[in-house]
Amino acid sequence: MLLAMLYDDMFIRLERARWTLNTDIPFDDIDPSLLSPQWISDLRNICLTELSALYATEMFLRDFYTDIDFCSFVSIWFYEEMKHHLTLRKYLERCGETFDEAELPELRLTFAPGPAIETLTMHFCGEQRLAHWYTAFSEQGPEPVIRKIFKILAADELRHAACYAKYMRRAVANKPEVLPDILKMSLWMMRSTNDAPKHPTTITEPSVVSRLEDPEYVSRMLNWYLPGRDHEAPVQRRILALLSELSGVEIKNLREIPPLVRKLTASKELSPAAA
Ligand SMILES: [Fe+2]
Ligand SMILES: [Fe+2]
To answer: Of 52, 149, 172, 177, which residue is the least packed, with the fewest Cβ within 10 Å?
Structure first.
């Protein structure tokens, strides 16, 4: 039986959830006097980090060359991430900030091709984490319009995570032996701290964030707006829920992942099909 592309249904769902730049963001209500120079600087860095969708898209289309379904979804993801960049840039321009387009190509990086399943997993975890950060900024931002923007962006990032989850489910259904790689990558991504936060824009060498005006901005913002070690609990809960679903066993914490990976790898080695 021919399976429908995940993209078809996703397109309709995402279209239904979509917001409109000109009518949903009250740019005329922005009160720049409420923003400190530090907030302006941090918002500039977040705005530029959203541009990383450019290089990620190039790599998705290259590394998922034969996966037309996923590449089709990337067209929506790229559009929405660039919309995040545009929304923040318009907000900052209303506050008197300017951006020099000539400096933007600095942020276009290229990396060696990576295994598709690890890329999917890394982005799934990254979107979950970014939604968590943006939710905190939406609660603690100094100005009502930026609080609203972060709330809207956080919801988009969560929807993106849900789309990556769909492609991970499909990958496991088609090829169950990818499960240990998903588990290992998720564990690595979940071992994140405020001083070394893991997101697709921070973990490469060089990374997008390392090329920004203020590469320390993510850590500093996290230490201010999400202090303490346990704030990641909701991120971990959502990632562990997907891992439990994919592996068919309930995974309650990170410590349960390595034994499960060992068990799955050993059973693969013992099975006659693998030999
Ligand atoms: Fe985004
Ligand atoms: Fe996203």
So the answer is: 177
Average pLDDT score, the chain? 93
DSSP string, 59-119: HHHHHTTT-HHHHHHHHHHHHHHHHHHHHHHHHHHHTT----GGGGGGG--------HHHH
Q: How far is the CA of 51 from the centre of ligand 1 (A)?
A: 9
Q: Measure 56 CA to ligand 2 centroid, in angstroms.
A: 11
* Ligand 1 centroid from CA 249, angstroms: 32
pLDDT number for residue 106: 76
Return the ligand number nearest the Cα of 200.
2
Residue 162 Cα, ligand 2 centroid: separation in angstroms?
A: 10
What does the pLDDT look like over 84-103, one tens digit per residue?
Answer: 999 999 999 999 999 988 77
pTM score of the predicted model: 0.94
- 84 CA from centroid of ligand 1 (Å): 5
Ligand nearest to the CA of 129: 2
Mean pLDDT of 153-157: 98
